[in-house]
Structures are given as C-alpha cells and as structure tokens.
User: Fold these one by one.
Assistant:
Number 1:
Amino acid sequence: MDLLDTLTAKGLRGETPTREEALAVLATTDDELLDVVAAAGRVRRRWFGRRVKLNYLVNLKSGLCPEDCSYCSQRLGSKAEILKYTWLKPGQAAEAAKAGVSGGAKRVCLVASGRGPTDRDIDRVTDTVAAIKEADPAVEICACLGLLSDNQAERLKAAGVDAYNHNLNTSEGTYGDIATTHTYADRVDTVQKAHGAGLSACSGLIAGMGESDEDLVDVVFALRELGSDSVPVNFLIPFEGTPLAKEWNLSPQRCLRILAMVRFVNPDTEVRIAGGREVHLRSMQPLGLHLANSIFLGDYLTSEGQAGQTDLDMIADAGFEVEGMGESTLPRHRADIAAAATGGCGTGAAGGGCGTAAAPGEGADATVGGGCGTGGGCGPCGGHGHAAPAATADQTAEEAADQAAGETAAAADEVRTDLVRVRRRGAGTELAPNA
Ligand code: SF4
C-alpha cells in the first residue's frame, strides 16, 4: 500500500506526514488494519525499541471540580458515584506512589481536580514531591493540577517536578462543545507556561467524544506543533452521571487506527495509551503496544484498570519489556531538543536528569485528571466499541456500513455500567493500591 510505504519512510526519518496522509490512516478498512499496525509498529521500534514506559497515577484530590468538562466524572454537577476527597497528605501520596514504583513505574503522575492550583496548593505539591523523591530520587514526577497562573510552573520546577500534564483534549474548533468554563486557548497557555519554565510538556487528547476525523487530526497536529514530549491518548470512558455517558463510539479497530495516526504524526515522541485502554481496546490491548511506547500501570483517577500484574504479563507476553529507571524515554535527538527547550532537563532522562537518551532503536525514554485529561483523572473512560459487521452474502458493503451505523446509534442510547468500574481502592481509601 503506497500510503503505508510513504508513512513508514517518513516515520523512520522522524518526519511528520501531511494532514491528508493522517486522515487516510483513519479511513483505512478493517482488512488493512494489521498492515497499518505493522507499518506504525516499525516506526515505534525505530525510535523506542520494544520498551514500554510505565506511569502511575496518584489522584491527590478527587471530585467536586467547578469546571464543566463534559467528559469528566469530577465535573461540576457530575452524578457519577466516584470517590470524593480533598488533598492527600504528602505521606499518603508518597505511600501510593511507592506502590506504583514498586510495580515498575518510572513516572508518577500527581493529579488534582480543580480549575487550577492556588499558591497554597503548590506548597502542598512541593511537600509531596519531596516525600516521594526522598524515598526514590530517580522517580520522574509529572504534575497535573489544571490551569497555571504566572510563576507557578517555575515553583513546580524548583520543587523537583519533571513534567507537567495539561491535555488539549480535542480540536480548537470543537473545544467549546465539551467545556465552557475555560477555553482551548487557556489550555495552550498552560502548556506553554509549563514548557517555558523548563518542565517537560505532556499533552494529549481524548477520542470518542463524537468528534470527526478532521478534529482528531487537528488536535494531533496541534500537539506536535506545541512540542509536547509525551502525548497521552485517552479513549472516552462514558461515566454514568456525566453528559457523555451514552457516547459509545469506539471499536478496538478504531482505537488502533487512532493510535497509528498519532504515532505517524509523532514518530519520535512518547505516545501513551491512557484512560479507556481496557474498556475500548479490550482483547486488542497487546496490538496497541506496537504503536504506543507508554501506558499507565493499574488504576486511573476515578476508574479501575486491570490488575497491575496483568499489565506486566501483557507486556511480557507481547514480547515487550518494561523501561527501566536508568533509561531515557526519548531518542537522543528529541531529548536534546527537550533539554534545550527546558533549560537542560529534558524529558525522559531518569535520575540525573539531563539528556541521557539512548540511541535510536536502542533502549533509551500524565492525564486527565486534575485538570485534565488523561486516563485516570478527569475522565477517561471506557467504552464498548461496536465494530462494523462484515457484509453478509446478501449485503453490499454499503448496506453493512448502514447496519453498523444503526447499531452504533442504538449503542449510543446505552449507559454501559458493566464496562466502567468506579475506583474503590488505592488513594483516598483504606484499600491497597492496584500496582
Ligand atoms: S477535566 Fe479537570 S478541570 Fe475539567 S472538570 Fe475534570 S477535574 Fe475539572
């Protein structure tokens, strides 16, 4: 297939495809799916080998947010029966983080619900970072606290935070359809503030909210343009009690096409499968590892994932390996760019901090949540995709597509409480974390 040959060649050179090529990936058929995964998988292995970076979410403050992000179980007016609690104490957060690190995570993502942190909240996070780094100085810390005010990013950087997550979530053109209490421009501003302060920028998207292919391509190119070092790809978890509870638009095949497109547009950037992995990819999760080089271990912010040990078994069974603390996530040239942009600390380099990226192809190196977006945090979610059926002997492909559309519409009337498990263990409970 000419398209895939072109995309592979560009990806192996670290080049970005055209917008039309990215759209064409999303338009491929199920018959072409394994070829798409194989092509994007070559690009993934070129820059990240078979390494999988594990990230671990700690929800520092859950629920009761004044913002109205429609995908989020913590939003204003949410009826989702999630855990609700105010700030964890530093020792409690460090205890939760320790479980994730013991399970193999090299990055801990500290998330808090809310529009953005107060200066007192920055103090709390500072104390929490100190407690975590006292136990393990090599662990990477990403903060996800919502919209940042002036000088807060600098304070987080001084506290030892390595990265800041704030997702764009969807295209600029449709942002007003999913949230009204802040704007797309507000989100861009926070990503730029974080980057400007020397924090590695983590910013991604949520798929499955009813957006078009053009919207997906728009947001993925915008993230590339912003210079995000890691791109979390969330698949909407339609929580009962939120406005998007009936948005079950994703199939495992659709999720794989989206991940492949994100990989082709970001060949040498960390691509993470974030919230909704288990719910939407289901038994196809191992194929996702051929596209993304990073996942969350265990549970998300307000929903449960599969057991941490199941994540580790899946990685081993699929022939991948967990990325170690001493390895840099990004390939050397990208780590150098990140280091230059952040004044020396790049992303990914564990431990020492600066630019220790491994050579391409060898082993070198947040979310919804508090603010934003990724998996655990603010929203993601789950879904039970409805794959298009193959045409029967009596059916044309067009008729089969119509049938699929009808089934999707029927599915959109459902609330799938069987697929979305609200988190009832770990941070904010008396039960042990899942890691
Ligand atoms: S995504 Fe973040 S800012 Fe939006 S409602 Fe959820 S917790 Fe609040």
Number 2:
Amino acid sequence: MTGRLLKGLLAVVAFSLCGLLMGIAATSDSTAPQSASKTTFYKDVLPILQNNCQSCHRAGEVAPMALMTYDDARPWAVAIKAAVLTQKMPPWYADPQYGHFSNERKLSTQDIKTLVTWVNGGAQPGDPKDAPAPVKFVDGWNIGTPDKVIEMPVAYNVPAEGTVDYQYMVIPAGFAQDTWVRAAEVRPGNRALVHHVIAFIRSPESQWMRDAKPGEFFVPKKTEQDDSAKKSDKSDKSDKKDDESANSNPEKQQTSNEPRRQRRRGEIGDLLVGYAPGIQPLDLTSDQAKLIKAGSDIVLQLHYTANGTAGADKTKIGLIFAKQPPRLRNVTIGASNPSFKIPPNDGNYEVKSQVRLEETVTLADLMPHMHFRGKDFLYQVIYPDGRTETLLSVPKYDFNWQLGYTLEKPLVLPKGTRIECTAHFDNSVNNPYNPDPNKEVKWGDQTWEEMMIGWFSVAVDPKASTAGLVKFEKPGTRTPPDQPDTKAGGVASGTSGGSNTGSTR
Ligand code: HEC
C-alpha cells in the first residue's frame, strides 16, 4: 500500500519535474540563440579569463598558450568548454568538504555557464567597447616588482638525455641586517628543463652545506649519503633528502655527520619559496613575513629533467620586503615519513607522518608533496583534548600540480596538538604515471622514487626561537602531551584525563 502510494507520488513528482524541465528547456530554447549571441567575449568572457586564467595563460607563464585576447582565446573555445566542465581548469584539487582556502582557484557555476553559453553560441567577439580594462601584470613576475632579485651567477647546462642529480647552489643573500620578506617568487630561466626549485634560507650559524662554494653548483657527496644511510636504522633516506626536508626530521639529522648535528642545534633552516608547476608564489598576509637573518645565504635545490634537447637554465628569485616588522614570523616545516617501502603492484599503500607542536602556533598553509605514485593526501589535526579535525583532503593528488593551500582563516593550534598526514600511493598498473608497478619503491629524490612530505607553515612570535618548535613522532602516537613522555622528557603537570588516547573518528 504505502509502497504503491510512494511510487504514485514519485511518479507525480517525476512527472511535474519533467514538466518543469521541459518548461525550462522550452523557455531556454526559445531564448537560447538570443542569449548565446548576447554572451560575448568582450562583455562576458574576458572578465572571467582575467580573474581566473590569465595569471597562468599569458606569455612567459606556466600554461602553453595565452588567453589574453579574443584572437588568443577563439581557437581554444571548444577546449575551454571541455576544460571548465570537467573542472580540469583552473587546476584545484582540494575536496570542497573540508577547509576554506584564500588561494582557491575555482569558477562559480555562473561563470562556467557563461563560458559554455559563449562557446555554444559560436564564440562571438561582441563589441570591443564592452571590454574591461586589461589587468596590469608585471612582466616576468606575479608578486609585483621585486625589491630585490637574487639570481644564479652562472647557468646550469642541462644535457639532452640522462638523469641529472639534484643540484644545489649557495648564494649569499647579501643582507647586512635582518630582513623580513612578505612575498617571494622563483622564476625558472628555462621552464622546459626545470622540474622544481626550492629556495631555503640558511642562517649564518647553520653548518648545512658549508662545503659548498657560494655561486657554484654542488652535489652532496655520494659517500656521505651512503655512510649516513648505513648508520641510520631507517636506511633508505639519502643525504639529499635531508636537504629537501631540512626541517622535516631532526631525528634523522642526528644520526649522520657533524654538520647536520650542528644544524640541528641552531635555528631550523626555513623554506623560503618553491617552484613547481602550479605552485603559487609566496604571498603572505600583511601580519606575517619570513625572516632572512643578516648574513644568511639562500640555498637553491634545483631539479632538472632532460627532455631531449640540451639547454641552459639561470633561475632567479624575487623578494618583496615587509614594510614593517611583522606581528608573526612564518616558518615552513615538513611532516615527512622517509621510511616507507611501497610493495610492487599495491594500488593503495598507506603512509603516515606526524608531528606534535611544542608551542602554540597559528597554522597558515599546507602543501602535500609526493611523486608519480602519489594518490591522495589528508591533513588532520588532533587537539590536546582528543578532538580531530580534517584540514585538507586532496582526494586525487596530481604530481603535475604541486599546489599549496592557504587557510582562509589562520588556525590557532595549542601546544600539544598533533598534525597527522595520511597519504596513499598507487603502485599498480592502473596508475598511468607509474613508471614501473613491479618495483618496490622507497624514498628518493627522483620522480620514479617516492616522497611523503606534509609541508605546513606556521606563524609564530618573531622573537621566539624556532628550534624545537615541533617534535617528530611515530605516526599514531597519542600520549597526552602534558604527561611525562619517556622519550621526550615532557613536562609533567596536571593531566586532562585519559580521554585523549585516540582520535574521535
Ligand atoms: C595555475 C595555472 C593555470 C590556471 C589558473 C589556468 N590554467 Fe589552463 N592550463 C595551465 C597549464 C599548465 C596547461 C597545460 C597543461 C595541462 O593541460 O594540464 C593548461 C591547459 C589549458 C587548456 C588546454 C586543456 C587541454 O585539455 O589541452 C585549456 C583549454 C585551459 N587551460 C583553459 C583554462 C581556463 C579557461 C582557465 C581559467 C578558467 C585556466 N585554464 C586556468 C595552467 C593554468
């Protein structure tokens, strides 16, 4: 009885929905040609391209073609429709269920509709008088005209073929005074050959890469890597890896040679800015800045990939200074796990990493990093009271788009909070990027090896030392932070009870 009634009701609903849809179809049909022809490039489409596409789609930027003018865009009309309907463009990978990000790249439903209507209506130009004023881009930079440019003094010659070891170059930053940087951008000299660049800040007291002559290319010695690998129980992390994640695992830094031990005692080396396809430049809110101490160096890590044609690269970095000392210092830390072994043909291998905050900090942004086998990445925080919150979920990680996610509202995380990252790797034949599903895969620099780093930036008191800001923990550790911890020698004080032994979900 009720079943039939329900079916009847459903039929009525379906029928009226149908009518409704037909009605819509009918009305839009009768107006379609008109409204489509009314939707023009200059009036409707150009503003959308300006706001959402031209940062990448203009000469000298990451996209292969410009979308600045009607003539630029017209041949791409059909491709534009497809790219926005599938949400391939603009590139953005965060699951909208979690978090709000100030650098979100997403078209509104209305904008998608406008683009599609324009294409369906024959991609009409319309009247150039309707065009908005062109956006004023600073040629060669997305951060605006830099206050200072630091450039490699010599070019690197990338061969036509073969694997190029990560190259490092120490460049004196040239500051006689402590300098606060609000924005920074890496500009590769040759995008076709540069896979990625990371610029680290090396403070004067740091011994990291002291063997390297400033201004010359440097590859950390293989023997050193082997030695440290042998000494380390997690034997699969190379020396070079330490460099990429200079702050990501002090435990490992301790196990190897003297320079690194010294580095650990001092301030941690900060990551200034990175370049990889899709990465947005560092562009901090007005109350935050990165500190480059007087006498510091910039250490560039350069990953070149041969592409069949030899060529040279001279990468540079642009800096914009903070107008005044900031309220908060921005420091980037990596929660990495270097000790995984992904079995051959495993399509969903889980790797976790975890840090515990030893101070109360403000979380500013997140950037997951994996290589070709990276499948998904999740950031969660576990508060001292046991509450768990998902900050970012990237359900379909794409190695080609190394995106950073800036929290719309910076999040205060009390001392004792844990940041837990969970990644999955697809080492199966179903992963089209997988270079070899039959291989066991460990940590390594090259893209056919893997990495697992949950980079995150925190904002802290500018006067506070950043040494010991976080503690690197075994994933899954849930000891209450305010109870004595045999390993860390934590401070015993009043406990909050046994409620914080696990996550809430
Ligand atoms: C962050 C940089 C970036 C932004 C923003 C961006 N694009 Fe792209 N776009 C690229 C890159 C890089 C490629 C080439 C690589 C690729 O296809 O993934 C591309 C490719 C394309 C293609 C070719 C797709 C294909 O299947 O061959 C179209 C069409 C396109 N973009 C349209 C747009 C439109 C429209 C917007 C704005 C709504 C936009 N893009 C925003 C970087 C960007």
